[in-house]
Amino acid sequence: MLLFVFCKTGISQVVSGYIMDNNSRSRISFATIYINGTYVGTSTDQNGFFTLDISKKASMPLTVSALGYYSVTLSKYSTDTLNLIYLAPKDFELNEVVVTDKGDHGRRKENLQRFRNDFLGTSPNSNNCQIINEEDIRFSFNPSTRIFKAFSVNPVEIVNKNLGYKIIYFLDKYEFYYPFRAQIYGTIIGNYQFVEDTIIDKSLLRRIEERRKLAYLGSRMHFFRELWRDNLKYAGFEIKDSLFKKINYKNIVVESKREGSTEVSKYLNYQGKIYIGYHDNNDITIIRINRDHIFFNKDGFFDPLGIVWEGEMSNQRIGDLLPFEYSPGLPEQ
């Protein structure tokens, strides 16, 4: 998955075009075009054509996903002409799959629980998530390398009962290393779209909003929104360097403006580790930046492949995600 960051400006806020197979150059029907982590999205028609209004999230990259293809995330696209977007088939990955638990219900149950813990998380919100198409998920484990993988041709569909959302997750890579006597670590790469739950019982809305707010406070989204506003201290965040010396907004953020534009783009730029505390909590988050500049915006969006997370915020998984439209205490737009 490639992620290029580029802040778009302009009058037109509608993007349209065709989604194509990178090998055959044929058009892909029913591909999904969306702004990752939001409600904004659409699908291609039978001819692979789409049109999408991005006016509410014009500063964010555009993601395209389709069954049997790797997702692609783009920030350089045209709002004036038709876009031709090519997706690469997952032929190699699909051929690699070895279904190790077919017919072994005990092993499959164990694999599913391992997947749920790593993918959804283990928080109260995560424990109240349901993957409604678990039968689409397949697993492989290589005893010699101790690598555990999960695959799903169809997007993983998750209902989060605690937070009142449905998430459509396009899983591109799930790979975890399970050594005998060492810390487990792994990689999850994918993109996701939120679908609003329109059948929530109104009597539950207050409790759901309280849980959403608890999930938000101290989250990665919360951190980047307050960093954008240069408001970390007031919001309860404290950042330090590897010597535990306090640092501030100017130490880690670079601002830029395009010529002729009043819009500001902001980038995280720092050498070394940043230690993040929240309201004197003993649970510390550590981030390491693996690119020169990491784009982020006022909604809390950031380049997910540019940062390595350790500690408290790294434990926040799919079960605690909120859409970028979320505002604590306010109705979502």
> Which shape, going by the Cα principal axes?
globular
- Number of helical elements: 7
Beta-strand content bin = 25-35%
| End-to-end distance | 29 Å
Number of domains: 3
Name the average pLDDT.
Answer: 87
Number of distinct beta strands? 20
Q: Major sheet, described briefly?
A: 6 strands, antiparallel
SSE ordering: EEEEEEEHHHEEEEEEHHHEHEEEEEE
Work out the radius of gyration: 20 Å
Provide structural commentary.
The protein is an alpha+beta fold and 333 residues long. It is built from 7 helices and 20 strands. The strands form 5 sheets. Strands 8, 9, 10, 11, 12 and 13 form a 6-stranded antiparallel beta sheet that branches. A hairpin with a 6-residue loop joins β17 and β18.
Sum this structure up briefly:
The chain contains seven helices and 20 strands.
